[in-house]
Amino acid sequence: MHIPKNTWSKCHRREHSSMFKRELAARSLVAARSVVAGALAVGINSNLLFAQRRMELYSSCCRADLRQRMQNLIKAASNQILRRDRHQPSQEEEIYLEAMTHWIITYFIGK
Asked: What is the separation of C-alpha 40 from the centre of its chain, rounded to a whole number of angstroms?
């Protein structure tokens, strides 16, 4: 009996959730043991864990960069509005602006 190649690969391929992958990558970045030992402990190929670690590091760097860019953009926009209105912000207004900036970034990017 002939089994089509794509059917066979779908039947025998394990799929892990993205949450599991992120947790495993984070654990391997923090833990003092080797990445290979961590991969073997959960029964996956170490190459998969190395790839997930790279993706996790890249995405965290991108989030940090995006967070900084958004902060700069919001500050520039608010300063432009304040200059247009010829208004010097009070301390309360600056605190409010900082809180709103934090909320916007947390909402769109995450923690």
From this structure: 25
Q: What is the pLDDT of residues 9-46, one digit of tens each?
A: 556 677 888 888 888 888 887 766 788 888 888 888 88
Tokens at 19, concatenated: 């949450």
- Tell whether pTM > 0.70: no
The number of domains in the chain is 1
38-80, pLDDT tens digit by residue?
888 888 888 988 888 888 877 777 777 778 888 888 888 887 7
3-state helix vs strand vs coil in the chain, percent to 5: 80, 0, 20
Q: 74: which residues sit within 8 A by CB, 6+ positions away?
A: 100, 101, 104
Other beta carbons within 10 Å of 84:
8
Residue span of the structural domain in which 43 resides: 5-109
